[in-house]
């Protein structure tokens, strides 16, 4: 994957992943709960794994990239938090809301790149990256909805 257009896509994708890393790391630094801190640092480190994957794409030959496109999409871990303070719950909701939007933007970015791909190799790689982002988005959205129910209950807004 060496044509200039693809390198520009990969460079932007790397920047997107670095921004995600910085966001998750920043959030981890804002909370006091060790389990929440660890969860968000794990998510941040996954973003760094994506950066390494993308860097390999930029330097691999076609055969190596086809093998990478067949890799299993890692599923994000289950996010379990206990005893969040009201402030931490609000922060967690904000973080998962923003994370959901970031991952959705990334999956759309890769979907557009796949649609414009000139070869099957390129299309497969961008689709694989899109699958990664969709799995993250879906996990973050599910956690956000769970936290929202907790937040409503804690603030006497529960619709029941």
Characterise this structure.
The protein has five helices and no strands. It has a single domain (4-72, 83-154), classed as Up-down Bundle (Ferritin), CATH 1.20.1260. It is mainly α. The protein has helices at 4-30, 34-59, 62-69, 86-116, 120-154. The N and C termini lie far apart (54 Å). Helix 1 (4-30) runs antiparallel to helix 4.
Count of domain modules: 1
Q: Nearest-angstrom radius of gyration?
A: 18 Å
The portion of residues assigned to helices is over 70%
Major sheet attributes:
none
DSSP strand count: 0
End-to-end separation: 54 Å
Described by the principal axes of the CA atoms, the overall outline is elongated
CATH homologous superfamily heading:
Ferritin, core subunit, four-helix bundle
CATH architecture, by name, is Up-down Bundle
User: Into which percentage range does the β-strand content fall?
Assistant: under 5%
User: Topology as H/E string?
Assistant: HHHHH
CATH class: Mainly Alpha
Helix tally equals: 5
Mean pLDDT: 81
The class by helix and strand makeup works out as mainly alpha
Annotate the secondary structure layout:
Layout: H1 4-30, H2 34-59, H3 62-69, H4 86-116, H5 120-154
List key phrases describing it.
160 residues, 5 helices, Ferritin, mainly alpha
